[in-house]
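Hypothesis: this fold can be encoded by more than one sequence.
Test: take the structure tokens below, design a sequence, compare later.
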């Protein structure tokens, strides 16, 4: 039986079919009707039907979403795609597809993919990090997602940024309603906002990284602040979880200049005489989330 994974994003919905060995059989994507809940359910139903019709096989279905399904209510919570919040998404998808559906946070799906056959393969405890439009995280222990009793395990992006190495980070307001969330500093928009505050010019994260590499002093300073804050945030994770590997994903994870200084500063910030935790870039890139959704079901 094939395993179908679906990644529900703000701009696109992607589906993948994996065989029992984790090899990709087929991939499809469609634009996401992100403003209408019923249209999202229907788009996923149609996408799964297309995959199964093309391959001539029925499959298990796992879906990665923003936010998480509340263990208390069965409704989606904490999704920045707010049309999902308060909806019985798993139940609605099961009804639409006529089978059990497994739904998991998209960062957890990323972590599961990289722990299964990606950059964290073979490690007992993997912390997967998304550094993109938002900042998320997922925990995989011995091949299984740990979501926690509140379904928020790994949500380090909504902790307050530790002021390690700087007297007081600038105040920020997060979409969640809290101030100084890690996400507001370490997301792509967060880096851009920091550069605009200090340097007075509007650049996105990739432009900042390119200018830093070309020797621009202001861009270099922004990247240095970013690494310092990233190391401070991840040090708290390592002090609590002590993972074997931290796998970075999302668009900012492709900035190669982050890795060497991040590893050095993380080693200085963690409460240990030696830090064995590996900090590595993803193996599956943008496909990790959708692959991880498929991996929510074991081979069979």
């Amino acid at each position: 039986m094939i395993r179908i994974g679906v990644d529900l994003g703000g701009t696109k919905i992607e589906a993948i079919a994996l065989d029992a060995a984790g090899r990709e059989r087929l991939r499809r994507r469609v634009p996401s009707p992100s403003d209408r809940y019923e249209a999202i359910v229907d788009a996923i139903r149609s996408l799964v039907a297309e995959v199964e019709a093309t391959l001539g096989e029925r499959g298990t279905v796992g879906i990665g979403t923003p936010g998480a399904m509340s263990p208390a209510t069965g409704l989606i919570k904490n999704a920045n795609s707010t049309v999902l919040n308060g909806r019985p998404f798993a139940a609605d998808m099961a009804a639409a597809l006529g089978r059990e559906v497994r739904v998991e946070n998209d960062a957890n799906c990323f972590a599961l993919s990289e722990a299964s056959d990606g950059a964290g393969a073979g490690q007992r405890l993997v912390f997967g990090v998304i550094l993109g439009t938002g900042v998320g995280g997922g925990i995989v222990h011995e091949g299984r997602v740990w979501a926690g009793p509140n379904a928020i395990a790994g949500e380090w992006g909504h902790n307050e940024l530790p002021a390690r190495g700087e007297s007081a980070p600038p105040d920020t307001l997060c979409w969640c309603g809290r101030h100084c969330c890690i996400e507001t500093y370490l997301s792509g928009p967060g880096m851009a906002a920091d550069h605009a505050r200090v340097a007075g010019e509007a650049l996105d994260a990739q432009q900042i990284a390119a200018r830093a590499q070309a020797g621009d002093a202001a861009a270099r300073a922004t990247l240095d602040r970013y690494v310092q804050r990233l190391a401070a945030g991840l040090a708290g994770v390592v002090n609590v979880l002590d993972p074997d590997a931290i796998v970075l994903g999302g668009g900012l994870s492709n900035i190669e200049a982050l890795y060497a200084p991040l590893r050095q500063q993380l080693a200085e910030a963690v409460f240990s005489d030696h830090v064995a935790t590996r900090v590595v870039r993803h193996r599956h890139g943008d496909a990790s989330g959708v692959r991880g959704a498929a991996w929510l079901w074991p081979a069979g």
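The chain has a mean pLDDT of 95. The longest helix spans residues 217-241.
Hypothesis status: open.
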